[in-house]
Amino acid sequence: MEQSVSARWLKRYRAFFLILLLIVAIQLFLAYKSLDIVGGGSGSGFDAAEAPASPPPPHSQARVQPPTRTKLTAQQLGFQPECDILAREAISALQRAKTKDCREHIAHIACAIQAGRFYAPQLRSSCPAGNHTANVSLGCFKDEKDRRLLAGYYSSSKTSNSPAKCVELCLQSGYPYAGVQYGRECFCGYDTPPRAAKLPDSSCNTKCLGNAKEICGGFYAMNIYETGIAKFTAQLAATTPPEETKRVRIAFLLTLNGRALRQVHRLLKALYAPEHVYYIHVDERQDYLYRKLLELESKFPNIRLARKRFSTIWGGASLLTMLLQCMEDLLQSNWHWDFVINLSESDFPVKTLDKLVDFLSANPGRNFVKGHGRETQKFIQKQGLDKTFVECDTHMWRIGDRKLPAGIQVDGGSDWVAISRPFVAYVTHPRKDDELLQALLKLFRHTLLPAESFFHTVLRNTKHCTSYVDNNLHVTNWKRKQGCKCQYKHVVDWCGCSPNDFKPEDWPRLQATEQKSLFFARKFEPVINQAVLLQLEEWLYGPYTNEYANLHGYWQSLYHYEDVHGAGDDLARSIGDSVMRLSARQAKLDPLELIELTHYLHRDQYKGFLVRYRARGSTGKPLHLEMRVRPTQQGKLARNARFSKRLRNFEVSTDFDQKEQIARNFGKLLGPQSDLLLSYTLQANADSGAASHSYNLTLLWIDPLGRLQDFNELHVEDSTSDVINHSKTLLKHPITPGIWTAKLIGRNSIYAQLKFLIAPLAYYKGYPLAKSSEAEALNAGLTVALPEDFEMPVEWQQHLQTDDEQFTMREESLAKGKMLGQELHSWIDGLVGQFFQLRESCVVEADSEVSLPLCSEVPWSSLAPDPKSDVDALLK
After folding, report:
1. Is-contact 351 522, C-beta < 8 A?
2. Residue 626 and residue 648 in one domain
3. For residue 834, what are the contacts with CB-CB under 8 A and spacing of at least 6?
4. Averaged over 356-367, what is the pLDDT?
5. The whole model's pTM is what?
6. What is the mean pLDDT of residues 337-357?
7. Are 610 and 861 within 8 A, CB to CB?
8. Residue-wise over 276-298: b if at least 16 C-beta within 10 A, else e?
9. Is residue 547 part of a domain?
10. Can you tell me the distance from the alpha carbon of 753 to that of 698, in angstroms, rounded to the nearest whole number?
11. Distance CA 138, CA 189 (A)
12. Among 111, 156, 332, 703, fewest CB within 10 Å belongs to which?
């Protein structure tokens, strides 16, 4: 009877029993898999990536072929490599590198790494370790799930865990203690395990999964070892120097790029004092900035420019090479200084120079660097420190993974530092028998962003470790969501981040530095926002008077005739020459020579660019003039469309900065080699109670022949705040010169239309076009970017020219593309005159035959007084 009842219950509820069994099976499976989880979410020094792949089952071996490895031939490379290169990333770099020299450099390093003769496998730290000795076993200890003995860092590995591996990982991360548990787990910590938790050695009885001959703890039982380093504690900086303390002298190392001459002058004015020294490195490609700053040497005995210059790129190894070379130059100079502080044109002080000197005088011999403030293994992975990079062809090539040397702590953070003279002497003059420093120099010459880790890592592992202060004296305007857009992938095989420019809305961050030991802020760019700089200067030095000349104006050079000309100037010169001819014709003058193009902004609004040139009047006397020019694009918005009414700043440009949400081609100089994009601002929906809308739109790119060259599908969502969007087009270069049209259309209507100019070129690689073949190659681009089999929607046809019209215009465009000399200039002038408005002019010299105001007396001219950037005022 009982059996029949049981059978009846089992039969009635068998579905529930099956579900219960399934749940138990899933729980067991998840419990098993949870033991394989790597790194506890913090990264891992040795994880499943090191485990060999499981072999395929026997029955599948006949069908599944192993992936074939690309093998590069000597014919492909242009030389015979030293070895058969195996690393996939190295092969990729070799396939992409453009020059033979670069490929040879990559191959040489890849082969040396492959042979195990490039990096040092083990290094010895010389930072005092106290009573700690590496790999000393402290015994077996009882651990608890909720109160870990070593709570600093955790990782798990099914295949490679061992006491030696765990000690190496924890030492690298800066922990004095390492513990292995349950065969696969590694723990790191700062605190000595309590004696009360000591267990008999027999309680730790689980074999290591990385080495079955060793024991790796047990169930909540941990074998603990010393890593051989003491717990690191950064020094606390003194804030006030004792009485009668000798005041330090500072060497300001300015590493500059770009053309922001006036901002550099402004920075020098804020930092200058006769007792300090100013050593300036200008990027090798920046001829204008170097030439202009060189003029300061004859005026100021404590300002000098580096003669050995480097072409540096974001994240490049050349940045560290440049810094070390400049520091060595400073040591070899006859200047006396106690600290080096490196700054760029984007830095500006947030305290007066006297306060900085007081602070450093209170901390002689200390070294100020900023640590990353996160778990070290996560930092290593984020920075790519476990990868080898090679710099050549103005690119950082990633060529494979690497294992960092054992025995050292890895540290890093910011590449802006303030370091003492003794430490500078140590890193710039390594002794041949100093294996540690020699190996670290080699390691960081093949590291991404090396200056962000080199000084920190050297400090942590040498006798200078007791001088480490975790403060680089800077506040940086990090906005990770905006700043991490992989904007440097054209120069580095990595996704990098960059800080944002300070703007008035960021003022509270600057004010908050007042009570902190912070003396500089970055980044500032007056071409993006000058108002915050003015606010900062008034905060430091008092308010400007109402009589202060041109306080809200900012000028930045775009082109200068003395520059070393190359292909990069061809477009600016072509348009600048055209504006010069149009301006001279308007004034009834003969144009002679284009001198300079300068961006002009007033109250952070772009007012156009200034064209300074020489011309000849009716008397034959040379004249020197300047004209303000305003670029325009001819746009139309639909009047009755709700979307169009909220559309602002609808424009075509290049060089869109996703971080600052602005196209940096302020002058709208577009040519046959430009990478076009359209940007616009959609204003917030003013009616907060209205239903939210989304818009599916199409952007048509129509060339001067009336042909569709490309299109973008846009999906735009309503927002409660203004949103800036941009859309790129992929066109085949050279694109056709002439008047282009961008149309934003919906299903049945046109929302916006914009006509813009692609200007023909009058120069090729810095020289005037002299051959029809050269002109045709630049100015007669007639290819269509869309594939031949593209089926165009019928409703788009109404926006394009007919086939007959396109054929006629094609013949005309081909003829114009071959033009040279005066004929070419007339074509360019006819186009430029439609899209660049000539606003106002001035004359440089008095007693001129033209009745124009003096440039020194009009507020917009590049020759107008600008006392905020007048570095000569320091001489008075």
Report:
1. no
2. no
3. 739, 757
4. 97
5. 0.89
6. 97
7. yes
8. bbbbbbbbebbbbbbebbeebee
9. no
10. 12
11. 14
12. 332
- Within 143-286, strands assigned E span 153-156, 177-181, 185-189, 198-199, 221-226, 250-256, 277-282
Whether residue 537 is found in the same domain as residue 658: no
Residue 81 tokens, joined: 């490599």
In 666-749, the DSSP E strands lie at 677-682, 694-702, 708-717, 723-728, 738-745
The verdict on 580 and 724 lying in the same domain is no
Domain interval for residue 197: 137-226
φ/ψ of 625, rounded to 5, equals: -130, 165
The reported pLDDT for the residue numbered 496 is 82
Minimal CA–CA distance to 410: which of 470, 471, 456? 456
**Amino acid identity for residue 522 in this structure:** R
pLDDT digits (tens, 9 = 90+) for 588-598: 999 999 999 99
Torsions phi, psi of 583, nearest 5? -65, -45
Q: How many residues does the chain have?
A: 876
* Residues with Cβ within 8 Å of residue 112, at least 6 apart in sequence: 118
- Per-residue confidence band for 71, with pLDDT thresholds at 50, 70 and 90: confident
Torsion (CA) 370, 375, 378, 382 in degrees, nearest 10: -10
CA–CA dist 524, 344 (Å, integer) = 10
> What type of residue is 178?
A
Percentage of the residues of the chain whose pLDDT score is greater than 90: 77
> Checking phi first, is residue 168 left (phi over 0); if not, alpha (psi -120 to 50) or beta?
alpha
Cα gap 27→295, rounded to integer Å: 76
pLDDT confidence tier of residue 782, bands split at 50, 70 and 90: confident
Q: Please check whether residues 669 and 785 belong to one and the same domain.
A: yes
Q: Kindly report, residue by residue over 163-203, the tens digit of the pLDDT.
A: 999 999 999 999 999 999 999 999 999 999 999 999 999 99
Question: In the chain, how many domains are there?
Answer: 4
Buried (b) or exposed (e) across 667-692, using 16+ Cβ within 10 A? Answer: bbbbbbbbebbbbbebeebeeeeeee
Q: Could you tell me the two tokens for 473?
A: 């004296």
Whether residue 186 lies inside any domain: the answer is yes
Helix-strand-coil percent breakdown of the chain, rounded to 5?
A: 30, 25, 45
What pLDDT is attached to residue 781? 87
- Tokens 């020299």 sit at which residue? 101
User: What is the rounded CA–CA span in Å between residue 389 and residue 113?
Assistant: 12
**Last-in-domain residue among 541, 565, 598:** 541
Cα–Cα separations (whole angstroms), residue 447 to 315, 454, 586, 739, 863? 9, 9, 57, 46, 45
Can you give the pLDDT at residue 3? 47
What token pair was written down for 772? 């029809």
Residue 657 in tokens: 């900065």
Residues 420 and 558 in one domain: no
Q: What's the order of all strands across the beta sheet hosting 590-602? A: 553-560, 590-602, 605-616, 622-631, 836-843
Q: Nearest CA to 868 among 599, 558, 530, 601?
A: 530
Residues paired with 208 in a beta bridge: none
The CA-based diameter of the chain, rounded to the nearest angstrom, is 131
Question: Which long-range CB contacts under 8 A does 828-833 form with residues at least 24 apart?
Answer: 828/574, 828/575, 828/577, 828/578, 828/759, 828/760, 828/762, 829/578, 829/581, 829/582, 831/737, 831/738, 831/739, 831/757, 831/759, 831/760, 832/575, 832/578, 832/579, 832/582, 832/757, 832/759, 833/582
Asked if pLDDT for residue 641 goes beyond 90, the answer is: no
Q: What phi, psi does 387 have (nearest 5°)?
A: -125, 150
Distance CA(212)–CA(223), nearest Å, equals 15
Distance CA 23, CA 16 (A): 11
CATH assignment of the domain containing 475: 3.90.550
Which residues are CB-contacts of 127 (< 8 A; sequence separation ≥ 6)? Answer: 229, 230, 460, 461, 462, 463, 465, 466
Whether residue 425 is found in the same domain as residue 537: yes
Q: Specify the amino acid at residue 448.
A: L
